[in-house]
Automatic annotation (TrEMBL):
It catalyses: malonyl-[ACP] + acetyl-CoA + H(+) = 3-oxobutanoyl-[ACP] + CO2 + CoA. Pathway: Lipid metabolism; fatty acid biosynthesis. Its main location: cytoplasm. GO terms for biological process: fatty acid biosynthetic process; secondary metabolite biosynthetic process. It comes from Tepidimonas alkaliphilus. This is Beta-ketoacyl-[acyl-carrier-protein] synthase III. Residues 250-339 form the Beta-ketoacyl-[acyl-carrier-protein] synthase III C-terminal domain. GO terms for molecular function: 3-oxoacyl-[acyl-carrier-protein] synthase activity; beta-ketoacyl-acyl-carrier-protein synthase III activity. It is found in: Cytoplasm. Keywords: Acyltransferase, Cytoplasm, Fatty acid biosynthesis, Fatty acid metabolism, Lipid biosynthesis, Lipid metabolism, Multifunctional enzyme, Transferase. GO terms for cellular component: cytoplasm. The keyword DNA-binding does not apply. Belongs to the thiolase-like superfamily. FabH family. Catalyzes the condensation reaction of fatty acid synthesis by the addition to an acyl acceptor of two carbons from malonyl-ACP. Catalyzes the first condensation reaction which initiates fatty acid synthesis and may therefore play a role in governing the total rate of fatty acid production. Possesses both acetoacetyl-ACP synthase and acetyl transacylase activities. Its substrate specificity determines the biosynthesis of branched-chain and/or straight-chain of fatty acids.
Length: 339
């Protein structure tokens, strides 16, 4: 019987510091910029976001989310043989944040009298806000072809580090956080739980509409390592490709729009999320929304939303989940998952 990659546990973590829109407005006012809770809520649906403390890295947030996902799956860190971590805000240029997470999982396991996932393969995936969909696709492919049995798939970001607080059109949109899932190989005839289909794409002609145009060379930062976005260009591309990729994933799995129990979109803007739901004729109550409390956490947003919906008891075993995202690159993709 064919192998499937089943989600057996989810976890999420947000840093302690929470900023409401009013607090963001006060922060921007100190720089002579004007914004308001009303503008941010009306244009995006965002009401608050979390920012990491000084020195708190993507791997720290990833560790907390991963430990929760492992606990939910009833697994120990040493049982994982693959770590795929999506981030655009890595701890270092190299090694990968996935290997740093591996070390931190090992240290946490040792402190608890166990062992870490030393020896597991560990890699980062860079697809900005589509990162989790890409990471899930990589892990699913390895599991279905026998290259891994049990994977930790993580999205972790500290976007607060790359925000330009002199640009009110972008800095109010993003937040920090991490989400994780444990994926395990299961055998069945296709009617059981697991990732049923994935669909990923990129169009490198649009690298400039959402980017951090900086790099390091000769011990110096070259260019400007702060986020730039042409919001309207991203918006227009996003609404088109999200519908396309959702339909593509459904077609690959032989499912119809009406079969979807929950839409779990990348949490960037409530208007984009609801627009996709309407195009797919899904009732808005079936859209998992966390953007109001998290802001846009890039690669972390989908697993954070998934974890929220699982822990709230909304998602039930056997239900069909449609995960989808868009982001810098330009990248986009979706995954259809039987929970
Ligand atoms: O995660 C990757 C995916 N990213 C996204 O999905 C983002 C996609 N884009 C968007 O979500 C929206 O384009 C934004 C939320 C970024 C902006 O919303 P919009 O409805 O496209 O607004 P806009 O850019 O057309 O700006 C409208 C007005 C402008 O003023 P004028 O020119 O009409 O006088 C802006 O200067 O709002 C002004 N504005 C603000 N006002 C108060 C822009 N930012 C702010 C702000 N506070 N923070």
């Amino acid at each position: 019987m064919p192998l499937y990659a089943r989600i057996t546990g989810t976890g999420g973590h947000l840093p302690a510091r929470r900023l409401t829109n009013d607090e963001m407005a006060a922060l921007l006012a100190q720089r002579g910029l004007q914004t308001s809770d009303a503008w941010i809520v009306e244009r995006t649906g965002i009401r608050a976001r979390h920012f990491a403390a000084d020195g708190e890295m993507a791997s720290d947030l990833a560790l907390q989310a991963s430990l929760k996902a492992l606990a939910a799956a009833g697994r120990q860190p040493h049982e994982v043989d693959l770590i795929v971590l999506a981030t655009s805000t890595p701890d270092m240029v190299f090694p990968s944040t996935a290997t740093i997470l591996q070390r931190k999982l090992h240290e946490a396991a040792l402190a608890a009298g166990g062992q870490g996932p030393i020896g597991a393969a560990a890699l980062d995936v860079q697809a900005v806000c589509t990162g989790f969909i890409y990471a899930l696709t990589v892990a699913d492919a390895l599991i279905r072809t026998g290259g891994a049995r049990r994977a930790l798939v993580v999205g972790a970001e500290v976007f607060s580090r790359i925000l330009n607080f002199d640009d009110r059109t972008t800095c109010v949109l993003f937040g920090d956080g991490a989400g994780a899932v444990v994926l395990e190989a299961v055998e069945h005839d296709g009617a059981g739980p697991g990732v049923l289909a994935t669909d990923i794409h990129a169009d490198g002609r649009h690298t400039g509409i959402l980017c951090v145009p900086g790099t390091v060379a000769g011990g110096q930062v070259l260019g400007e390592p702060l986020l730039r976005m042409d919001g309207q260009a991203v918006f227009k591309l996003a609404v088109g490709v999200l519908e396309e990729t959702a339909r593509a994933a459904l077609a690959k799995a032989g499912k119809a729009e009406a079969d979807v129990d929950w839409l779990i979109p990348h949490q960037a803007n409530i208007r984009i999320m609801y627009s996709t739901a309407r195009k797919l004729k899904l009732p808005l109550e079936r859209v998992v929304v966390t953007v109001d409390q998290h802001g846009n956490t890039s690669a972390a947003s989908i697993p954070l939303a998934l974890d929220h919906a699982v822990r709230a008891g909304w998602i039930q075993p056997g239900q069909l989940l449609l995960l989808e995202g868009v982001g810098g690159g330009f990248t986009w993709g979706s995954a259809l998952v039987r929970y």
